[in-house]
Amino acid sequence: MVAPLDVPRLVAGDSFVLRSWELGDLPLVREASSDDYIPLITTVPSVYSQEAGEAFVQRQWERASTGSGYPFVIVRVADGRSLGTVGLWLRELNEGRASLGYWVVGSARGQGVAAEALRAVTAWALGDLQIPRLQLYVEPWNAASQRTAERVGFQREGLLRSWQQVGEERRDMIMYSMLGTDLSSPAAC
């Protein structure tokens, strides 16, 4: 049995903090539900209701309580508004690797939110948790997410053909990685 995880509070640059999910984050889930893409590739409900939103938040709590990963909400310090999420998933931790995923709602895109959050979780995972390898997957068309990964210092490794189910179809993904030894690189984190 895997021990429950405590999702820490992390500082992400000067403008954001990362924390565990709360029921007060339901407006974030509602906005994400109306996005054309987020519900296809995540467990965000494609049709929002109070019940569906609460079930999504409870799934995030279960991920921590079952030890499968650390789901963080990205919160803007200035106004306390939830803008997106970043998760560190530990399914392959026994193999010396973990994966990351992130999304930001449309009203918060283009402001460096995802990069700051990804940078903070990456530094924490590689440094404090001593995970040897982190990886993330981005669809080839998603240039903004590719720039985010590269800005943080992730290295593009290659195309994984038909890697992931997205909606009704299998899609290619580009794999990115960062190693603990990459932390000394000037571009990393």
TrEMBL record:
What cellular-component terms does GO give this entry?
cytoplasm
Which SUPFAM superfamilies does its entry note?
Acyl-CoA N-acyltransferases (Nat) (SSF55729)
* GO molecular function terms attached to this record: protein N-terminal-serine acetyltransferase activity; protein-N-terminal-alanine acetyltransferase activity
Q: Give the keywords, sorted.
A: Transferase
Residue intervals of the N-acetyltransferase domain: 16-180
Q: Which organism is it from?
A: Streptomyces seoulensis
What PANTHER family does UniProt report for this protein, alphabetically? ACETYLTRANSFERASE, RIBOSOMAL-PROTEIN-SERINE ACETYLTRANSFERASE
- What is the protein name stated in its UniProt record? N-acetyltransferase
Per the UniProt record, one Pfam family is Acetyltransf_3
Does the UniProt entry include the keyword Cell inner membrane? no
